[in-house]
Write a structure and sequence with these properties.
Distance between the termini: 37 Å
Oligomer: single chain
Largest sheet: 4 strands, mixed
Strand content: 25-35%
Helix content: 10-25%
CATH topology: Immunoglobulin-like
Shape: globular
Radius of gyration: 19 Å
Structural class: alpha+beta
CATH class: Mainly Beta
């Protein structure tokens, strides 16, 4: 009895002091090209990378130039693809929608990642205000407390950049 009481007391203390660790993903992630990206009634080819990023590497990914990231031979992109951290979606004239399913194997690689960086190669639409690619990079929290259970994450790929179609819940403080 004394042992049970001790274990119960320790469990209660842990829940008050530390709580349960957060859980991350998986989600269904849908990306749709905006009709404003059509030229001569055709979709332009667009590449979008979904990258699982931990908090310890977030600053590196936030400061990365998107033009540099999509340049040939970029080491950060090559490493992310080689180690299973990045998943590339290629849109072409035939398709305007892509989905990363919640069953995709990439989620196993991201199980300890706190964020999914969505990075779009929209260089032909960039402007001086977007020199670092701020509108071509969307940082999506993948903590399960930020999304309704079973909710799909929907993102629009627009001329002006990436935009949530479904918003995450505010961060708990």
């Amino acid at each position: 009895m004394r042992r049970v009481l001790c274990v119960a007391t320790m469990m209660a203390a842990m829940s008050v002091l530390g709580g349960c660790p957060p859980k991350y993903g998986p989600y269904q992630v849908s990306l749709n090209l905006d009709p404003g990206l059509k030229e001569n009634n055709q979709w332009r080819s667009v590449e979008v990378d979904l990258v699982g990023v931990g908090d310890h590497e977030r600053a590196q990914w936030e400061s990365k130039s998107i033009d540099e990231y999509f340049s040939s031979g970029d080491s950060l992109r090559a490493d992310a693809r080689a180690n299973g951290q990045a998943h590339t979606l290629r849109f072409s004239s035939a398709d305007a929608a892509k989905t990363l399913t919640r069953n995709d194997p990439i989620w196993k690689n991201w199980k300890t990642k706190q964020n999914m960086f969505v990075i779009a190669d929209l260089r032909w639409y960039s402007d001086a205000d977007d020199a670092k690619g701020l509108h071509r990079r969307l940082i999506v929290p993948i903590d399960t407390s930020r999304w309704e259970s079973g909710q799909a994450i929907e993102i629009a790929v627009r001329r002006a950049g990436l935009q949530y179609k479904t918003e995450p819940k505010p961060e708990e403080k």
